[in-house]
Amino acid sequence: MLGRTPGSIIAVRPLKAGVIADFEITEAMLRYFIRKVHNRRKMAKPRVIIAVPSGITAVEKRAVHDSAMHAGAREVHLVEEPMAAAIGVGLPVQEPAGNMIVDIGGGTTEVALISLAGIVFSRSVRVGGDELDDSIIQYMKRVYNLMIGERTAEEVKIAIGSAYPLEEETSIDVKGRDLVNGLPKTLTVTSEEIREALSEPVSSIVESIRITLERCPPELAADLVDRGMVMAGGGALLRGLDKLVAEQTGLPVHVADDPLSAVAEGTGVVLNELDFLRKVSSGS
Per the CB 3.0–4.6 Å rule, which of 123, 184, 236, 241 could disulfide with 163? Predict the structure, then answer.
């Protein structure tokens, strides 16, 4: 519905960059989820666990907690997204050994070093899938005077987006509005151009990985030489991103089997293990 609604309907994104952008709508969304899970029973008061970015402030955490309580939760626990992602992809987080997770979501990228069920160092940057889409929109505007919408930008990213030169470069037709004469127009763009458009947000992600590695204690760094890091989140599906990170860091890089649902899977695992939940939950 984004970009296609009449004046009487507004498409709202309740969460942006991993934090609440609209309090009331977030509450309504959570209430809907709770009802859906409990087959529309009005009196259901479940225990709720929510994964939040590691870099959010105490005020933002409080907002998430309060929204869930108002939506009908009995108790609310917050777990940091990189921890949930690491559990979701099956990393041995409780062992005294270095695990590194890179979770590239829609609004944020979380990079974390985990050992003994705790986060040793984490870095959260507000660069994610949305920022990649935005870079494509700006590139098309700057180079071709073509205005495209968020959905079209995302489709282009999924179809031909890449972070590293491809074996076979491809192209795609992009439809939008010409900013010069205001008429609809179709253009063909190549995967090389889109790679150039994405280069800035991609380098921000790579830079945050490098900074995390620089802050890594030597013992854990030794573990990472063999184990490398695991990438999760929708952004991990960007073609060649694993190759680029491996080339820049010299470490093995593995992409999770199901990167899109890693955080959700990990959150589910944590919810089933209450003792572990008390260890890893933050500000609950």
Answer: 241
Task: List alpha helices for the chain, DSSP H.
Answer: 23-37, 58-70, 81-88, 129-144, 150-160, 191-214, 218-227, 241-249, 262-272, 274-280
Q: Which of 254, 255, 280 is nearest to 267 (CA)?
A: 280
Predicted confidence (pLDDT) per residue in 124-167, tens digit:
999 999 999 999 999 999 999 999 999 999 999 999 999 999 99
Secondary structure of residue 151 in the 3-state scheme? helix
Helix 262-272 to helix 81-88 angle, to the nearest 10 degrees?
90
Average pLDDT over residues 5-16: 88
**Residue 121 structure tokens:** 């160092």
Position 284 confidence tier, pLDDT thresholds 50, 70, 90: very low
Cβ–Cβ < 8 Å for 28, 34: no
Nearest by Cα to 20 from 29, 10, 33? 29
- Examine the domain organization and report whether 141 and 247 are in the same domain: no
Buried b / exposed e along 204-242 (16+ C-beta atoms within 10 A): ebbebbeebbeebeeebbebbeebbbbbbbbbbbbbbbb
Q: Cβ contacts of residue 16 below 8 Å, gap of 6+?
A: 107, 130
Domain count, the chain: 3
CB atoms within 10 A of CB 278: 10
CATH number of the domain to which 60 belongs: 3.30.420.40
